[in-house]
Structure formats: structure tokens, C-alpha cells
Amino acid sequence: MLAAVGRNPKIKLSCLQTLSSTTNLYFPPFSFHSFSSSSYNNNKYLRRICLVSPTLTSNKFDVPSYTGSCRRRSARFFCSGTSSTGANVEELELVDEKETNTKKVREFRKRLSVSEIKGGSEQGMDRLGQSIVVKGWVRTLRVQSSITFFEVNDGSCLSNMQCVINSDAEGYDQLESGFIMTGASVSVKGVIVASQGSKQKIELKVVKVNTIGKSDPSYPIQKKRVSKEFLRTKAHLRPRTNTFGAVARVRNALAYGTHKFFQENGFVWVSTPIITASDCEGAGEQFCVTTLIGDGIKSSVNSIPKTGDSSIDWSKDFFGKPAFLTVSGQLNAETYASALTDVYTFGPTFRAENSNTSRHLAEFWMIEPELAFADLDDDMACATAYLQYVVRYVLENCKEDMDFFNSWVEKGIIDRLNNVAEKDFVQLTYTDAVELLLKAKKKFEFPVKWGCDLQSEHERYITEDAFSGTPVIIRDYPKDIKAFYMRQNDDGKTVAAMDLLVPRVGELMGGSQREERLDLLELRMDELKETLNKDSYSWYLDLRRFGTVHHAGFGLGFERLVQFATGIENIRDAIPFPRTPGSAEF
Length: 586
Description:
eight-stranded mixed β-sheet; five-stranded mixed β-barrel; globular; ATP binding; asparagine--tRNA ligase; ligase; nucleotide-binding; asparagine-tRNA ligase activity
């Protein structure tokens, strides 16, 4: 018999290393259990015991009696000793029953990317002779008589890894037979060597290539250029193109830079709700959220519950009242700014505006900081600092992508962004802006007068023509064209609101000092009672009842920021999956 130790007779044993027959053994204070040889061979909880003995055949053996002891190491029991036959017993790992079904998770390791291989000042020359593995998708393929070139892109950067393979390499037949085509995913192992071509400094001399996923010949994204309009119909594949891969990386950098700026300046990120009963903008262009129509496809209009006057009975709905997808997280952010001082939101917002233009989306992302104990001047200072910070961040961290945009999308975009990062912004009042437009020697499609909303053509003229590409902040708008929550100025006609205009895009940010005076806020809400249900904002009014403070904030449409930073003209190309009227695919 072999003595085993543990809390339960169901113990597994595994051979680790051979120990000397004279090894001293130490028993922990646990009960002993004995097993016959058959129990070792048949018990599913036991691994084989390895003995250096002639009786060891096919993982089955006679279990001799053995004396020894165990000690505990790292929550496991180890025993070793000398068998009665004189054979050395290899160290045995005895695992408690609670551990029998566990498996250690391996350590996570960051994958070596093409951007790391080819990045830096050396552009990969410091890695010559290194053996590496690259995984990605085939962009181009060129078969010659004695050698084949193919380029692999893993999405980490604009550059491809040029791979050179000859017939001696393992897996060459997959290329020769046409099994590997453009669009296929592959794993390539090879050695980094100096490139003979002029387009790159290094290339990969292939030792082995393996197809992970083959690509059908109908793959729509080949080397030839295709239009952005076509690629919008292939939103699931367009990230594999140079343009949309670069847009995605710059978008990522802008998002990271956004969090970095606010976190470094003491802001707290707040997750505001997507479903809401209030309309922050008061425009009424919201998507309704309801369960009254069941699955929404097979339901009949007659199944919708109604009140006595034939209107919809919202009390039967999921929330017991009308609910909508949010157009802004601002009002909710104000509640946390009233407790945490400086906060910001960064999340999706929605607007049911039936507009098919290059400037509008039904679903878009908003960045909305809210600053307590702040006025409009503080708000403008924060907006300016934020924009300059993220622009610098992109210029410093997305150089290859920005060079691509500078060459292929908008000539001079790098100079334009450097202007924004370095210059002081111009500030003028709405009244001054209107006078500037009225004096302009240009005919606008939309006439200009005091009290009108400034249109995109007006905004672009101001920042591009009047101020030669310098960002402009317009402040103190007429209250009748702005939202109810904006603080009324002493003149009674304007509010402490501001818009930040940038070249090519026009309005990039809009903000204001919020009305912190309860009486004036209620008065303004009463003026707008036809479009605004005051009862839905009782919680918002409470913020003014209980410890009100002057506070301010702004909102920035993230996709417009992406447009501004990349030169992409259509906003539908600045978001991975655009949602527009009549289109909600993918």
C-alpha cells in the first residue's frame, strides 16, 4: 500500500522530479488514507505515479509499500521517498479535491505588432536578425518565378510588413496554389532583414506561413481605390482600408487624449443614462423608447393601449411614462458637478433629425464637461485648453496617419492643426459676429440678421476668411435661440452662451454658464411651457434649491472632432457604424 495524505481520499498525484532516495520527508497534520494499486489505476482523480522501476509499463505499475512524508508548498502537498523495492520515487504532487478541476490561467502577453517592429527612429533596423511572428491580413500579393512578395497588415499602423518567401519555406505551396489571396488572415514566421526596396527599410524573410482564414475571391477591397460611398455599404470591411484604418486610430487617440486631459485636470468621469424622460435641448427631436408595440415587427397598431380620448396610455409602458434616447448627458452631469465639482461625460447620444447631410448623424458621441464654481470665462478657458491638448496629442502620437491625411485627404492639415495648437483663439460677441457677416463682401445662402441662428456657411466664413484659419469663440447669444438652462445676462436679451468655431467644420463646441438662480430658471421654463414639461425637471430645480452654485459646461460632438483632426469631409466616415435616416445596418 502507498500512504497518501490530504483532507479527502480523492487526491490526484503527478510526477514532478526525481528525488534522492535519502530525501527527508515531513508530514503535515492531516489524516492518512490507503489505496490499492487498482484504485490508482482507476480513480479519475489520480494521475499516474512514475517510478524508476522495471515494473513501470504503459503507465500502469505495481504500487509498492513506501515510507515517506509530505510537506506543504504553495498550497499543495508534495511527498517523496524510497519504495520498498528500492526504486527512487519521483516527487508527487497531491492536490486537495477543491483543486482537482482548476487550471492556472496563463500570463497575458502583449502581442508584438507591426507598429512596434517598424516604429521608432530606427524603423526596425535595430531588429535585424530577430526571429518574429506576424499575424494579420494580406493586403497585396505578387508572385514571381523564384520568389513571392506579400504584404501583411495587422491594423496597428498604416504600414504593412513586406514578407519575402521562396519555395524552401514551409507553407509556400499555399501561396503557389492560390490558397492565400488578398484579404486572407495569416500567421507568418520569419527573420527581419534589410529590405532591398526603397519603400521600407526592413522586410521579413519568411520561414513559415500558415493560413488562419482564407479569403473568397469575391473580397471587395482589392488594391485598386474604391469610393467612400461604396465603402459605406461595406462598413464591416472598410476598417481594412488605409483611410478608415487611419481614421480609427486617430479616433482612438482623440478618445484617449480626452480622458487623459480631464483626468489630469481633476475631473471625474460620470456615466449618464442613455434612456431619459427629459429633453435637454427642448427641440423634441428624440427617439422614443417603448415596449408597447411588442417585438416591433409583427405587432398590430390596435394592440397599443389607449386612454379614453384615444391617445397612447403611457402608464402601461415599461417606464410608466414616455421615455426617449438621450440627446445629451448634460443635465445629469450637472447633478454630479453639484457634488463632485468637476465632472465629464463621454458617451453616445441620439437625435431623430431627418437630415441627410454630410454634417448630421442620428447616433453620435458627445463629450460634456461640467464645472462647478465656474462662469462663462472659465468654460471658454477649459474648452480652449482641451482642444489644444487633444490636437497636440494626435500630432505627437499619430504621425504616420497624419502624414497620410496630409498627402491624400487634406493638403495642409498638419499646418492647420499646428495653428490651432499654438495660436490664441479669437473671442467676439454674437452681436459683433453678425455685424462682421453683414459687412462681408459675400452673398450667403441664408440671410443674416440679429437673432438668427448662425449657419455653417456663416461660421466657416468667420473662422476661415475673416480670421484666416484661427479658431473663434462667439459668446453672448440671444436667449430666444438658446436652451432654457443658460444663464440670463444683465441686459435681459442675451445669455451667457458660447460656440467654438474651427476651420472646415464650423461649430465644434457649444457651451454656457448654467442658470443657477431658481426664480429665473423657473420663469424661463414657464415661458417655454408649450414645449417643455416643467414637472419632468423637478429634480433639476432641486439642484438650485439645495446649495446652488454658479457652474458652466460645454458639449462637443466627437465625430466633428474626428472630422476636424483627419480632414474627412463626411461625418458618416468619422464613426465606425453610421446611423442615418433609412440606414441602421451592421
